[in-house]
Amino acid sequence: MEFAYQLSVVLTWCWFFVTGLALARFDYLHHRLPNLWVAMTAVGSVGGFFAAAALSNQWMLLGRAVICGIVLMLAYGVASLLGGMGMGDAKYALVIGTYLGWLGWEYLWWGTFIAFALAAIYSIWVHFRESQGSNIPFGPFMVSGVIIAGIAYAG
Known about the structure:
The protein is mainly α. Helices cover 85% and strands 0% of the residues. It has one domain.
């Protein structure tokens, strides 16, 4: 069972890398996160983590991951309603929070902080490079926050 658990976790993270990089690229190019892609990513991530929890009987991990996803989605939703980011970012936050929550609450906070810090650095660079204001695609930074937090967790 241990091998099956580890395989399900690895495959779930591989799913994130594939879909996360595709969504980050799309957001960078088009400044939007397609609902269908976000939904497919969410189904794959929750399904993969459900399988891992079932194989290892660690339902608390799944519960924490889903709660973290909901918390992050609600926080980004408020920011979206206030005009700070797009609604696609708020929807994708459910996925981002689920992956970070699987690692632990502290990784939810660190991954989110990393995403905002990288976006801030990028926005300063864009501000000095361009004379006009520009919208910042936040998806690539959300994905980067998860990847960096995941590397910190593994290391």
